[in-house]
Design a protein that fits this description.
Distance between the termini of chain B: 53 Å
Structural class of chain B: mainly beta
Oligomer: heterodimer
CATH topology of chain B: Methylamine Dehydrogenase, Chain H
Largest sheet of chain B: 7 strands, antiparallel
Radius of gyration of chain A: 22 Å
CATH superfamily of chain B: YVTN repeat-like/Quinoprotein amine dehydrogenase
Helix content of chain B: under 10%
Shape of chain A: elongated
Number of helices of chain A: 1
CATH class of chain B: Mainly Beta
Number of strands of chain B: 28
Number of strands of chain A: 11
CATH class of chain A: Mainly Beta
CATH topology of chain A: Porin
Largest sheet of chain A: 10 strands, antiparallel
Chain lengths: 246, 410
């Protein structure tokens, strides 16, 4: 954890030093800064189940996760973009919160007990998106790719110990910029795939209660819909279909 | 302008790539985890869907391939016979069930006997006669049975030479009955330790049919300059006491006694020479004497030994001792259960009474420890009973990795 924080500080330091050098080279003219937020829907891929219960009569018990469209989370981020006529590089660091539930079943002859364990995973995430833009004047649709590094934030929920803190994702994004003269809106949809198992294998049984369940090996994918408000640091020249020069 | 942008982008991307590589190096180990295997540590609860069955786990052994076999006594509410029957479960090395098998033999007693690839357990027939029953570990099918010529088996133990020791109870003469057999289960020696009262046959019967107090009967080995042989926790001369027996004649030497049957030693382990570790219970409290000097030739009152109170343990808590032998260091462990539904393992230095570590694992329901073994990877496995949903008693197997007890060097 400490090493990860150190690395994040190094990363931010590099970016800051780069920004300073960019200012010297007039790079600010191609910079947009803003903020945004949105909703996400978490999709859990069960790589390998670990059921704490073994049935002595040979049955197997239900061990699954809630559906993708029941897992509504949210995210809030700062958005920083460098752009030219066609390409945009966007950084969207912020908190990304995912919600989902684990469903377990315990079967007896005269009763079946269903156990639902809710999860809330809040990450500090630094997504990097590279977008190719089509200029349709007021609307400027784009498509691109995304990679992101996430660090799981602390939680009082004991079951969060069953996850490692790091998470890498890659995915595809699409959306459009809407030029509103003084601000630019960025409407963005993305699908992000987890690149690895996020379960802490050494602590998969530290779920807070001993016999409820054991954490499976899982991968966390998500669909995001975001809306950002961006401000250009350069003098605005083109803001509508009707050209208007000052 | 485009060239300037590309140059700036190149710089930015190179910085981000550098930072990304640093991040990858830092997080690679955390993400990789390939060195952590399912069999390193796990928790498994073995549930039977029949609510009318209560499973009382008794003993666990690790097979040479790393799998486990669990012995349980199964009490059926609807059975005509009040004594529990025997059940074996074999699991994989990660605790997944391979097979289960039930047997008509009643009131199986610890411990499972694993010798030369064969597996045996001691249980009794309906007339209280003790038998050693041998099964095929690959399928669980019964392959042989042999009468042990004692009655009411309460505990079985195999020493390092492969001899079988069985503690029984003779309800005709009212005596604890200790018998020693060779590795072919031929009787070598036996001895009766008279209780001098006929008041204990009924508690023994209740102990066997799981309807009364569960007494901490056990057998172990000791060896020092004074004598060598076995210690047996059993009823003797009105009280529950630990009796030190001569290894050949099984005659009683010294003993540690307590107040009638309300007080008792719940576990005992020889650490070295005259240094023993033991636990006891009395008046609702549990006590530990992690490094007590014991003279195996004399009679001692347990109250004369300085003890530390373990307030956290349950009423008359069962305690399972173990000498954990590792490549670097040896420890003495005592596993038990707490009032807040945790399994607890006290890790002591072998040569002293220094408490090195306390390991706990929390559960939502009441747990009762039944067996503790060292696994081949120098970790431990704890067999316990758990009241699933607070109602149904089921076996619980917890495997703990060696890293818990011997910290890995940086």
């Amino acid at each position: 954890m400490r090493n990860t924080k150190t690395t994040l500080i190094i990363l931010l330091g590099l970016m800051l030093s780069y920004s300073i050098s960019a200012q010297n080279s007039g790079f600010l003219n191609q910079l947009r800064i803003g903020f945004g937020g949105g909703v996400n829907s978490a999709q859990i891929v069960d790589l390998e189940p670990y059921n704490i219960y073994e049935d002595l009569s040979g049955d197997t018990y239900l061990n699954t996760y809630s559906d993708i469209f029941q897992n509504i989370g949210n995210q809030y981020f700062v958005q920083i973009e460098w752009f030219n006529d066609y390409l945009i590089v966007a950084l969207k660091p912020g908190t990304y919160t995912y919600r989902f539930s684990k469903l377990n079943e315990l079967v007896f002859s005269n009763e079946t007990v269903e156990q639902e364990t809710p999860y809330l995973l809040r990450y500090f995430t630094v997504p990097l998106e590279v977008r190719y833009r089509f200029d349709l004047q007021r609307f400027r649709p784009y498509a691109g790719a995304s990679i992101a590094y996430s660090n799981l934030l602390g939680s009082l929920d004991a079951s969060n110990q069953t996850f490692i803190s790091s998470r890498f994702t890659a995915g595809a994004v699409a959306g459009t910029y809407i030029d509103l003269r003084y601000v630019i809106l960025d409407l963005n949809v993305g699908y992000h795939m987890g690149l690895h198992n996020i379960t802490n294998k050494a602590d998969r049984f530290e779920t807070g209660g001993g016999e409820t369940f054991a954490q499976d090996d899982i991968m966390l994918n998500d669909i995001q819909i975001n809306l950002s408000v961006l401000f250009s640091l350069s003098k605005q020249k083109h803001y509508s279909n009707v050209e208007c020069f000052y | 302008m485009l060239n300037a942008f590309i140059n700036d982008m190149s710089k930015l991307l190179s910085h981000i790539t550098l930072a990304g590589i640093l991040l990858l190096i830092v997080t690679a180990c955390e993400i990789n985890q390939s060195d952590i295997l399912p069999e390193d540590g796990f928790v498994k609860i073995y549930n039977h869907p029949d609510e009318e069955l209560a499973l009382y786990p008794e003993s666990v052994v690790e097979m040479p391939d790393g799998s486990f076999i669990i012995l349980s006594a199964v009490k059926d509410e609807n059975a005509d016979i009040e004594y529990p029957y025997t059940s074996l479960v074999r699991t994989s090395s990660s605790g997944v069930v391979s097979w289960t098998m039930d047997y008509q033999w009643l009131a199986p007693s610890s411990q499972l006997i694993l010798q030369n690839g064969t597996l045996s357990f001691v249980a009794m027939d309906q007339q209280f006669n003790a038998y050693v029953v041998t099964v095929d570990p690959s399928s669980g099918s019964e392959t042989a049975q042999q009468a042990l010529d004692i009655t009411m088996p309460l505990y079985s133990y195999t020493d390092e030479q492969g001899n079988l020791l069985v503690l029984g109870y003779d309800f005709i003469t009212d005596a604890s009955w200790i018998a020693k057999y060779n590795s072919n289960f031929q009787l070598q020696q036996s001895n009766r330790l008279h209780v001098n009262t006929d008041q204990l046959a009924y508690p023994i019967q209740q102990h066997l049919n799981k309807m009364g107090q569960d007494y901490p009967f056990f057998i172990g080995s000791y060896s020092n300059s004074s004598a060598s042989g076995y210690f047996v926790n059993c009823f003797y001369n009105y009280t529950l006491r630990t009796v030190f027996l001569d290894g050949t004649s099984l005659s009683a030497l010294g003993n540690i006694y307590s107040y009638q049957t309300e007080e008792g030693i719940s576990s005992l382990i020889q650490k070295s020479g005259t240094l023993f570790g033991l636990t006891s219970y009395y008046e609702g409290n549990n006590y530990i004497m992690a490094g007590a000097e014991v003279d195996v030739l004399s009679s001692e009152n347990i109250k004369d030994m300085p003890a530390e109170t373990l307030y956290e343990l349950t009423y008359r808590a069962a305690v399972m001792p173990l000498q954990l032998t590792t490549d670097t260091e040896n420890f003495s462990l005592f596993a038990s259960q707490t009032n807040d539904n945790s399994l607890v393992v006290y890790q002591y230095a072998l040569e002293s009474d220094s408490l090195l570590n306390t390991h706990t694992r929390d559960f939502d329901e009441r747990v009762e420890v039944r067996d503790l073994i060292q696994t081949a990877d120098q970790g431990i496995a704890i067999l316990a009973g758990i009241y699933t949903l607070g109602k149904y008693k089921r076996p619980l197997l917890v495997k703990m990795p060696p890293g818990l007890f011997v910290p890995e060097e940086d």
